[in-house]
Amino acid sequence: MPLAPISRVNNEIYAALGELWYTAEDAPVALLRAESRLLNPWVAAEVTSKLGERRCQILDVGCGAGFLANHLASLGHEVTGLDASDDALAVAARHDSGHTVRYQKGDALKLPFDDASFDVVCAMDFLEHLETPERAIAEASRVLRPSGLFFFHTFNRNLWAWLVIIKGVEWFVPNTPPRLHVLRLFLKPAEVAIMCRAHGLGAVELRGMRPRLGWPFWRMLLSRSVSARFAFKFTRSLQLGFSGCARRDSGIPLPFTDRFSA
């Protein structure tokens, strides 16, 4: 009996969204905007809390249309946004009100930056789109300075996450393309923590995230439209989405390239 084909995540959908990144209410990208309204202030506050009141060099990997990169730049940080989509990068640059973010095309698995180039690296809603997320984590660690911070947001791999994150979005958000997410690429929190520690990223802090229940949530289910009032909240449970912060060890950099040379 032939083996069933492996389901591949559909990353091509982000290549031609244009201004829908910022305007669509009938597509999954509206949920990304809602997530950013929670995650952006959290990342900014954690950077200040852990690194102090100073201008940091920040890399946003898989930056998309610049939700996080533009927010951090507006706070005075020196931000670089990297993505594989020319379309998304163009939209991000148009929405950079201060025109200070350096946007460039690149590969998250082979970052075009020297070792120890950044104080902070972010990978939000990104790891679950990769076949080899550990390689992206290794590269993030490589370009971080000692005691630098790695932020991420991704989804847990379990039946509950499949029902809510995958099927729920397909059922209740119009214009959801096939294979927006693939369950096998979701990551257990322990797996991400192990990957981080294997590449010199310790002190891993995790927090869960879920939709905030209330009228905007129920309105979305009834109208199949994600309004600007739709919101997420942090939670102790890591069963659905989870966000994390890890700190780069201050020791000698690890030989990342040897591990992935094959």
Structural write-up:
This protein is an alpha/beta fold. It has a single domain (about 10-250), classed as Rossmann fold, CATH 3.40.50.150. Helix content is about 35%, strand content about 20%. The chain is globular, with a radius of gyration of 18 Å.
Outline of the structure:
This protein has helices at 20-23, 29-51, 67-74, 86-94, 133-143, 159-172, 189-198, 215-223, 256-259; strands spanning 57-61, 78-83, 102-105, 118-124, 144-155, 201-211, 232-235, 241-248. The chain is of the alpha/beta class and 262 residues long.
Keywords:
globular; 9 helices; about 260 residues; about 20% strand; Rossmann fold; alpha/beta
Output the CATH class name.
Alpha Beta
Number of strands: 8
Global geometry: globular
Largest sheet: 8 strands, mixed
Question: How many domain modules?
Answer: 1
How large is the share of residues in beta strands?
15-25%
Whole-number mean pLDDT = 92
> Would you identify the CATH H-level superfamily?
Vaccinia Virus protein VP39
Roughly how many Å apart are the termini? 30 Å
Sheet with most strands: strand arrangement: 3-2-1-4-5-8-6-7
Question: What's the helix count?
Answer: 9
